[in-house]
Amino acid sequence: MDLARFELRLDGRQPRTMLFLGSFRHKPNADALDWFLSGVMPRVLERSPDARLRVIGSDPPAPGALPSFEGAVTLKASSPIWRCRSLKPQYSSAPS
Questions:
Q1: Domain for residue 45, yes or no?
Q2: pTM, to two decimals
Q3: Which of 18, 35, 42, 65 is deepest in the core (most CB within 10 A)?
Q4: How far is CA 48 from the centre of its chain?
């Protein structure tokens, strides 16, 4: 990937919003999301109840398969990179 094509912009981020981006065909990505949702997200929400996690990837889990944490977690099938960039998360994770 040619990183020079992308400009780092720190403005316009959505506070307390995280992005998990990965292909769920790759089992370690699915395992990482399960780990995050079971062990990390509850702790994040304890400290910051308005935190949000956006999960985007190919071959996503079935609708309703993930805990929503009362709307704090949303799931979407893959989107082109320009759509992902428009989400403007404050934090992101893109496993291999």
A1: yes
A2: 0.70
A3: 18
A4: 16
Domain that holds residue 61: 20-93
How many structural domains is the chain composed of? 1
Distance of alpha carbon 89 from alpha carbon 91, whole angstroms: 5
53 forms beta bridges with 18, 73
Q: Is 70 within a domain?
A: yes
Compute the 3-state secondary structure of the chain and give helix, strand, coil in percent, each to the nearest 5: 30, 25, 45
Location of structure tokens 């990505």: 29
Q: Is residue 3 one of the residues assigned to a domain?
A: no
R_g (Cα) of the chain, nearest Å = 13
57: amino acid identity, one letter? G
Residue identified by tokens 């020079």 is 4
Predicted confidence band at 65 (pLDDT cuts at 50, 70, 90)?
Answer: confident
pLDDT band at 76 (very low <50, low <70, confident <90, very high): confident
Alpha carbons 55 and 77: distance in angstroms, whole number: 8
